[in-house]
Design goal:
The chain is of the alpha/beta class. The chain has 12 helices and 13 strands. α7 packs parallel to α9.
Length: 324
């Protein structure tokens, strides 16, 4: 069993207790709710716990962390409502739907999103420098993140001129990313070839309609779609000789993926844990600037070789992991 999976099994039990105090003191513990679609994100959750401990809270009165798996906004709303009734000191939300649910549920309890695509565009915060209100956290696909991703993709594929982007127009984070990519791409010399896809069936159909005459590579924005249908989507792209680029490190071994550019999930969780610790120590979310995770490059030379893609040595030297 992988470390990420082990962590997930632990947290799905419901409640963790950090700190040296005995369980009889749990009633006096600071209560943190972590809520969102956590299936497959054990490393992120482990990072939140590590971030809290690294900020010195392990030596403070105990912290009670309730983990609630919410696969939709409605499920998140129910979990947040229960936590508010029980008395919660802070809420850590995983991804956009749970963040929107928390924003609608409370204007007083601190909320740390971990992450959302573009919190300013989503109107969750006033600005990245001074969020205002009771929300702060990590942005993973705002304009700056999109710029860094495109730059890294071009390091791996220097001849990248036309990038096919598959996005779900009904999924708010995809809409935000598309807006940012459309703003950034012209300055990088990349032309976007966009295809709207609502599910894996549509994604496969879109890929089958693309060829090397249309695009040099394909970037699928919706990571949940790839996690559900990695083999089907990967085979369709490989059949068209289209290298796949992704923003989720966990997907770098997926068929046809040549490169992944994104944050390490555990390190992302640590950032959110440290931000939450600062809030529990008295900082106001309104004053904590939005943070950006470090984007790491991973390269899959097996996929590159099967697609006839030559990855430059400079890109391999910059990659934190190379699959050979």
């Amino acid at each position: 069993m992988s470390k990420g999976r082990t962590a997930l099994v632990a947290v799905l039990a419901g409640t963790l207790l950090l700190g040296p105090g005995p369980r009889s003191r749990a009633e006096q513990a600071s209560h943190i709710l972590v809520v969102g679609p956590i299936d497959g994100y054990g490393a992120l959750l482990g990072g939140v716990s590590e971030g809290l401990q690294s900020a010195g809270l392990a030596d403070a009165p105990p912290i009670r962390i309730d983990i609630r798996n919410a696969r939709s906004g409605d499920e998140a709303k129910a979990a947040i409502g229960t936590a508010l009734e029980a008395g919660v000191n802070a809420i850590v939300t995983v991804f956009g739907p749970s963040t929107q649910a928390a924003r609608a549920a409370t204007t007083t309890i601190p909320v740390v999103f971990c992450p959302v695509a573009d919190p300013v565009a989503a109107k969750l915060v006033v600005s990245s420098e001074a969020p205002g209100g009771n929300l702060t956290g990590v942005a993973s696909a705002d304009a700056e993140a999109s710029r860094r991703r495109l730059a890294a993709f071009r390091q791996v594929l220097p001849e990248l001129k036309r990038l096919a982007v598959l996005f779900d127009p009904g999924f708010p984070p995809d809409r935000v990313q598309m807006t940012n990519l459309e703003q950034i791409a012209p300055s990088t010399g990349v032309t976007l070839v966009t295809r709207a896809v609502g599910d894996e069936t549509a994604a496969v159909a879109a890929l089958r309609g693309l060829g090397r005459a249309d695009a040099d590579a394909v970037f699928v924005l919706k990571e949940a779609l790839l996690r559900r249908a990695a083999d089907e989507v990967g085979r369709a792209a490989v059949a068209q000789k289209l290298p796949i680029l992704v923003g989720d490190q966990d997907l770098v071994t997926m068929p046809g993926v040549v490169a992944a550019v994104g944050p390490d999930q555990r390190e992302l969780g640590k950032i959110c844990g440290r931000m939450t610790a600062r809030i529990l120590k008295g900082a106001r979310p309104a004053d904590l600037p939005i943070e950006h995770p470090v984007f790491e490059l991973l390269v899959n030379l097996k996929s590159a070789g099967s697609l006839g893609v030559a990855v430059p040595q400079r890109a391999l030297e910059q990659a934190v992991r190379v699959i050979r």
